[in-house]
Specification:
The protein has helices at 2-9, 17-29, 39-51, 84-93, 98-106, 146-165, 180-192, 196-199, 208-225, 232-239, 242-256, 266-278, 297-304, 320-338, 342-345, and strands at 61-68, 109-116, 127-128, 170-176, 261-263, 286-288. It is an alpha/beta fold.
Amino acid sequence: MMKDWKHLIGNIEPLDQAAIQQAQSRLDSLTKPPGSLGKLEELALRLAGITGNPYPSFPQKLVVVMAADHGVCAEGVSAFPQEVTGQMVLNFLNGGAAVNVLARQAGADVACVDIGVIGELSVPGLIRRKVRPGTANMAAGPAMSREEALSAIETGIAIVREAYAKGTRLFVTGEMGIGNTTASAAVMSALTGITPLESVGRGTGIDDERLRHKGVVVQRALEINKPSVGDPVDVLAKVGGLEIGGLAGVILGAAACRCPILIDGFISSAAALVAQRLIPESASYMIASHLSAENGHGVLLRELGLTPMLHMDMRLGEGTGGVLALHFIEAACRIMKEMATFDSAGISGKEDA
């Protein structure tokens, strides 16, 4: 399978160490004590390694919002009805969702992809790549076929390639799908061995009783489907979601194009774990935007070896945390390009001990 994936997306290369060294030399020459900008400097080095350019810039940034429905909603795991998925897609396309507002502020575009919404949506601006109209109820059997899971991943890769060809060089993961925190918790438990009681969270704001029920539903899905921990596509097909697969493809596609990929919250991180388990090198291109209030998110990020930039207690999804983090990306890039060096400013540097 690994050979097939390498052929599908091309090689995902290690970070460019020469660019990282050039960026470090530049940082050390700037008018500040070494390392005094902390994680902003770490981010600048990471961006240099990802892009191969010590002075990167990202004039074109894209939030890819993958939208899909989930059959597991029949189990009563969400505080909102299933039809909200399609309604929110219309909201995205009308520019009225939180991610639209924050993307406008950050100078990013938003692309909404129907990869598995129930019903036909014919709205200007919608990218229609429906693999199937929602998943099946994973608590009663597989969420989808293996072929559909692979198709979802391939869809995400194709979206990135198309955007890259038009000049996009930075991607943000976003999603919409009532019930998708349940699927993400199942994917997380299947791939990590963490119990459903630890992986499930409140999602759209469910109460304690429904939270316990949600854990039982995830446990039942795992017992019925028996996903293989060593086969991420099997996990995705049996207990995942179409938007999770699509985002895994977005992540792999961005990494193959040497583009930074900002990971949003819990659902996006579940997709990132699928991508990382498929091709471990892809994790080097992921940047964790924030730590959400969802129960299992911190554990997922630790599994990926990622440290979040923001702690805002957000749990909206859509890509909102990822878009907020774009301001830090811009700050790191501007520091590298615009800040004066000790020589250019005529300031005495640090003396040798």
